[in-house]
User: What shape does this take?
Amino acid sequence: EAGVAQSPRYKIIEKRQSVAFWCNPISGHATLYWYQQILGQGPKLLIQFQNNGVVDDSQLPKDRFSAERLKGVDSTLKIQPAKLEDSAVYLCASSLDPAPGQGDTQYFGPGTRLTVL
Amino acid sequence: AQSVTQLDSQVPVFEEAPVELRCNYSSSVSVYLFWYVQYPNQGLQLLLKYLSGSTLVKGINGFEAEFNKSQTSFHLRKPSVHISDTAEYFCAVRSNAGKSTFGDGTTLTVKP
Assistant: This one.
């Protein structure tokens, strides 16, 4: 079974530029998550999708971050414009449970490491 | 609101020694508890999870954890570690609504 795919793996941009990350979840997984992991910290949930609807985006900085999940499968996360403090690893995860699953296992991708100069 | 505190940011230990990584949590509602491992330049991998039932949970790679409701703790243990266990370990809680909160991680370094 293929895992969660993310691209690119690394990205370096200057502040005020735009950037986009892509995630392909495990086939059949209804729930998709985007996390931000700043160096030395645990992952922080940015947004959670159930199929192509948003379940939780309470911690997404909506003035600069946006995300969409096309047809309930792939997802993109965009930052526009980027700030220095956005430097982090952006992790995508997916889980099978079609409802906001409480005990459902999340499967994580390898992440995209973003450096903002 | 819910939060997770991993009490040790770094734990150095010699190979074949036992190890305990400590995790305390707080929540106003019932939660589910998880431990993940992250190897360098990789995503997180589930080690084990507690949903209900027996408070002692066994996971992969010989790890186990014990849920203690009165102390709101979920400490991770392994009786004998290997060099390959060197990694970052994250404790996480998830509410009934499906929201996950992670701790800041514990770096386990196993020395020969």
User: Anything to note?
Assistant: The longest strand of chain B covers residues 87-95. Chain B touches chain A at residues 4, 32, 36, 41-46, 49, 51, 90, 92, 94-105 (CB under 8 Å). The CA atoms of residues 37 and 43 of chain B lie 9 Å apart.
